[in-house]
Amino acid sequence: MADEAHKPAIRVTTTAESPVLHRLEVVVEAASVRRAYERAYRDLARQVRVRGFRPGKAPRSVLESLYGGSVAEQLEQALVGDTLADALEQAGLEPVAEPAIEASHPAIDSDFHYTARIEVRPPIALPDLAGLRGRRPRVEVSDADVQRELEALQRRQALLLEEPEGTEAAAGHVLSVDFAGRVDGKPFEGGSGRDVEVELGSGHFLPGFEDGLLGARAGEDRELRLRLPEDHASPALAGREAVFAAHVHAVRRRELPALDDELAKDLGEEFEGLEDLRARIRQDLVRLRERAARAELQRSLLESLVSQTEFEVPAGLVERQLQQQLHSARHRLEGSVPEASLEAQLARWKEEWRGRAERSVRERLLIGEVARARAIDPAPDQVEARIREMAGQQGVDPGALRKAYGEDSLERLAWGELVDEQVLEFLASQAKVDETSDS
Questions:
Q1: Can you tell me the distance from the alpha carbon of 321 to that of 360, in angstroms, rounded to the nearest whole number?
Q2: What are the beta bridge partners of residue 115?
Q3: Which of 156, 185, 231, 424 fits a 20 to 30 Å CA distance from 401?
Q4: Which residues contact 394 (CB under 8 A, 6 or more apart)?
Q5: pLDDT in tens, 1-43
Q6: SS3 category, 99
Q7: Of 398, 416, 391, 369, nearest in space to 129 by CA
Q8: How far is 159 from 205, CA to CA, in rounded Å?
Q9: Per-residue pLDDT for 134 more than 90?
């Protein structure tokens, strides 16, 4: 990089191609280009060895004939790198995505020209925030809700007991099953399992799989011919017929514990009886539904804000958001889906998810604009408190969390979370909120 004393002299012309795209025509003056060439060849002479010449003594003409092309290419990148920040400062632009550069190789004793297309934050005229409308589901927990959760907990505490030999499997039975699936006689990814628990009637397996095991006895083999789903993770298998060889090891039934004080005491010392357990279940349901109601309110406020605010979204930000989503999807699926199928799926998602990526960027820009308009800027002590909270949730020391993320990255993450929360709280305080019911 050029030092301050030898910063290249530049001229900049700016043209707005759209509210979010500006074209910079940058001219690096010939004298600066010449100095850059001289510096490059001095450095090159010290670094390379040319047969017939002592180190550092090869003539410039020889170096030009041997390395002229690569020097010009490197200088093109160096001159852009040394001048782009100054060009942006002169133009008063702050990029939101990587600039697109068009340039040709510089020539000694000539001006060097390049073009930079710069995407910037769009101008956003916020609507009257008091005119936003939001929806907040009414938080209600009935006795029936508590009873359903209590029965689900009872079910999770049930014992699995072996049925007598010869018992035919019926709905509600839990079978231990080995199975191996084939399509056109060949095994396929995810089509096999050993000692898998299959609860008949649960609907957790491929349609027809559980029904095909009704009436089976321990030790019995079954052959199941089933149609794979049209949305199968592997496009090559979607909608195909698969043949499963299944072996039933055991047929068991669930033995439910009684819904009484003893069950409550078994679940924790803090429960003196069943009524304490019911109270805790009700408390947890209220907390969960309050959180869901708050999330729905925030979603509806953003929907209202987006619908009332028109602005152009920078394409580079959308592409970056889309690539982040695809990268996360690849990370989740890699190793569990064949590579060819994964690539095909990602290609489809790249088109399907573009609208979602644009919506996400639009929301981020609006949140940022509200934060600027209302001077929402979480204080350092709030950021520190959030970092301690994040560390506590993960069961680690704040220092260890900082080390894992990097000091600046963790602070930016915590600050960003607080901005989101404070902006949404402000919007909720201004908006007209309708309380809705799911009933």
A1: 8
A2: 25, 102
A3: 424
A4: 401
A5: 455 556 788 999 999 999 999 999 999 999 999 998 888 888 8
A6: coil
A7: 369
A8: 22
A9: yes
Q: Is 361 in contact with 318 (CB distance < 8 Å)? A: yes
Cα–Cα distance, 401 to 391 (Å, whole number) = 6
Task: Report pLDDT for 52.
Answer: 74
Q: What angle do CA 312, 121, 126 make, to 5 degrees?
A: 65
Residue 327: count of CB within 10 angstroms of its CB? 11
Q: Number of C-alpha atoms within 13 angstroms, CB side, residue 306?
A: 15
Helix (H) or strand (E) holding 224: strand 221-227
432 three-class SS = strand
Closest CA relative to residue 375, chosen from 422, 409, 428, 334: 422
Angle between helices 143-156 and 274-307 (to 10 degrees): 110
Give the C-alpha separation, 250 to 175, whole Å.
6
DSSP symbols for 49-86: --TTS-TT---HHHHHHHHHHHHHHHHHHHHHHHHHHH
Predicted confidence band at 68 (pLDDT cuts at 50, 70, 90)? confident
| Count of residues in the chain | 439
% helix, strand, coil for the chain, step of 5: 50, 20, 30
The whole-angstrom separation of Cα 131 and Cα 125 is 14
CA 221 to chain centre: 44
Closest to 187 measured CA to CA, from 248, 245, 230, 247 = 245
For residue 235, the SS3 value is coil
Would you say residue 266 has pLDDT above 90? no
Q: Which domains does the chain have, with CATH numbers?
A: 4-119 (3.30.70.1050), 161-255 (3.10.50.40), 313-373 (no CATH)
- State the amino acid at position 215 in one-letter form: G
Q: What is the CA radius of gyration of the chain?
A: 33
Nearest Cα neighbor of 299 from 360, 377, 368 is 360
pLDDT score for 101: 95
3-state SS assignment for residue 178:
strand
